[in-house]
Write the C-alpha cells for this entry.
Amino acid sequence: MSLLLTAKKELFVSSEPFRLESGQCLPGLDIVYEIHGPEGAPLVVVLGGISAGSSPGRHPGDPESGWWRGIVGPGLALDSDRYRVLGIEFLAGPSCPLRLGGDIALTQVTPRDQARALARLLRGLDLGSLAAFVGASYGGMVGLCLAEEEPDLCDRLCVISAAHRPDAWAQGLRTQQRRVLRLGRGSDLAQECTAIARALAMLSYRSQKEFEERFDTRVKDEGSGGPRFECEEYLEARGRVFAESFDAGAYLTLSQAIDLQDVDPARVAVPTLLISVASDLIVPRQLVTELHAALPHPLGHHCMDSIYGHDAFLKEVAVLAPLLQDFLAGGAS
C-alpha cells in the first residue's frame, strides 16, 4: 500500500473582483490548490492549521511533505483511492499568489474570507458540492464559516480542534505574539521575531504534562549567554524552522484571522461532527461544548484524551482514523 500522493499543484485564476470582510476589494482571486483521487469520486476538502499548505499527504520523492500524511493517502482514513481530496493554500499565507506577486497587500483576512474563496474555487472549477469537509485547527474554522455561508456546498462537516469564536486566553496570547512580530517588521530582526513568536505558540500547542515528561529541567549547557535548558533548545529550534518558510507578514495576518472568527452556530445548517482535546489550551473542550449545544444538526462531540494538546490532531492518528472513517461512511461519533 503506497502512502504517497501524486504532486499536482494547480492555479485557479478568477478575474472577478473579490471583496474581503475588511472592505478591501481584490481585482481578482488566485488560489493554489491540489486534488488527489479518482475522477468522479466523492469530493472531500481537507484543511489544516495556518501553516498546513495545500498538501495533506506525502508527495513522491519527498517523505516529509504532507501535513497530515498519517491520515490522508491511499488506503488511509481519508482514502485518496476512494475520494477526491482537495487542499488549498490560504489567502495571505506564505504561498499565496496574490502576496507573491508583490503588488497586493493582504493585511486583514478572516476565516470567512477563506470560505468564500473556497466557494468561488468550487464553482469556478465546476466541482459541485462536497461530500464532506474535514477541517482541523484553522481549517475547522473555515469549515464552520463555509457551512454557515454556503450550506448547499457541503453535505457533512467534521471540525477538529476549532470553534465558532476564539477563546479569550488564547486570543490574549496571540495578541502578544503579534506584538513581537511587529517589533521586528522592516528590520533585520524580522526572522528572529517570527521564530520567537512561533516558539511562544508552540508552548500553547502542547500540554504542560508533555513538557514535564519530555524535558529535563536541569541545566543542559553553560554557555556565554548563561545556562541553557532542554526545553529552550527545542522551542528555539522549532521557531527557527518555522521562520525559514513562513514570513512575518503572513504569520501576523493569519494569527489575526484566528481572532476574527465569528460564526453563529445556529446558522451552521450542515450535519457537523466535533472533535476536541481535553488538554487543548487554544481551543478548550468547554468552548467546543458550547458550540455543540448550539448546532442545529450535531453529529456528536468526541473529546480525546491526549498529552499533545492542540497538536493532538497531528499526533493521535490511531484515535482519529476510525472516527474519520466512520464520519465519511455516514456515521456519527
In short: The radius of gyration is 19 Å. The chain has a mean pLDDT of 92. The domain at 169-257 is CATH 1.10.1740.110 (Rna Polymerase Sigma Factor; Chain: A). The first strand starts at residue 9 and ends at 14.
